[in-house]
Description:
two-stranded antiparallel ribbon, about 35% helix, TIM Barrel, about 220 residues, 8 helices, globular, alpha/beta
Amino acid sequence: MRIRIKVCCIASREEAQIAVDAGADALGLVAKMPSGPGPISDEEIADITAIVPPPVATFMLTSRTTADAISQHLDRTRPTSVQIVSHIDETEAARLARLQPHVRRVQVIHVEDRSALDLIPVYAPHMHAFLLDSGRPGADTPELGGTGRRHDWSISRAFVEASPLPVFLAGGLTADNARQAVREVRPFGLDLCTGVRSNDRLDEAKLKAFMTAATTA
């Protein structure tokens, strides 16, 4: 199966074009977060989502935790997909599915231990995909992505095997470990941010190296 590549932390139209030209399947657009790299305004997100050509998907990353707030955020930014970076209540996930049935919904699972697998049946009925990341949502300042850290890939592999939905893998991915990630975890897709950036900008050379490594695993 062909591995999908999602390039996150896209900060401008220019970065979006670089990622599209490199062959990215999806772009991640980070809204306001309690911590982490890459947040841009809702207005900037909407400007980018308006110009990204199909079939490239646009993921808006939101830290909102209620269906109504997430739905309103989607109405302002108009992406094709929403990436919910907090572990929200199951009832809110169900309500969001009713409010935004045409938007693809991706639930982030922060892999801190094997209890991450317990969340599969909680969210699977209401989502289209999972994304495994290395955040610490319970920290004093919640970490909800963009940490540049790897988590335990053996847990991620078990998650992929148990999930009825496609699973993206994120957290500390670079051109140096992309092949290993594909071979060990067998995800649907890879998601990366810090591994292809230099001086807070998308690095075209790093991105091309990552794409080559990931797609030849």
